[in-house]
Amino acid sequence: MGIIIDGKELSRKKREEISRQAGEFSRAHGRPPGLAVVLVGQDPASAIYVRNKKAGCEQCGIRSFEHLLPESTTQKELLALIDTLNADDAVDGILVQLPLPSHLQEREVLLRIDPAKDVDGFHPYSMGRLLMGEPTLVPCTPRGIMYMLDEHGIDPKGKDAVIIGRSNIVGKPAALLLMMRHATITICHSRTLNLDRKVASADIVVAAIGRPEFIRGEWIKEGAVVIDVGMNRTEAGLKGDVEFEGAKRRASLITPVPGGVGPMTITMLLDNTLIAARARVS
Ligand code: GUN
After folding, report:
1. What ranges in the chain are assigned the alpha helix state H?
2. Ligand 1 mean position to 14 CA, how many Å?
3. pTM of the predicted model, to two decimals?
4. pLDDT computed for residue 155 by the predictor
């Protein structure tokens, strides 16, 4: 029977450390680290994320700059705001909440963010550095996954890690981080054949495919570590990508949904803001 990884508790512990370090930064530099969050439109899930980011900043002594823009915002207006934030010395990190409304070009927007302030790690420069094994700012959810493994004493070295999902936000960077720590990685996705056999071979499973309970409990190898990034709203409530009850019986360690990976993501965003702030003043 697996031990449940408590993302809330790990997040609380990490936030204490971030608060302490943000205080030290403020004393040394006469200003707190600053995070600008940009939200365009009214997507309710995004609005909740943005509120949680603001609350996280307040809790940790990071100054937040909130920019809530109307749905009608043009590409030109959004790029102009990013230029202003790039030039603002009080802003160490810039996050543009995704997805953007469909009339805006996400790729061009992400490219416009100064890589030194790219606390999401989504800029091609940040991604390229990670691919080369010389990371600068690393995407928050994959960083949260590595933090959870470390806190539970899981060394990926030599292990078979199977990642289900190939997104730029989670799957690809998580695979690269695990590879940097000497895991053997397999990246699977919605078109992978014999997914059950791939999952059954894994010592570490990272599920980030966005389909409720897509990974069946009986696929999991006895003693595997299961990290579930899924956040799927269903009629039966919020469900992960892994069938939790079945997987828990076989795994040695498993993250719940909610209360697993989710709380770590914003915590790592706060940490990335601190990292960016320190790099900018050095
Ligand atoms: N939308 C869902 N997750 C994320 C994230 O990690 N960063 C941003 N900017 N938008 C998101």
Report:
1. 7-29, 44-60, 75-87, 106-112, 124-131, 140-151, 171-180, 195-200, 244-250, 261-281
2. 20
3. 0.97
4. 98
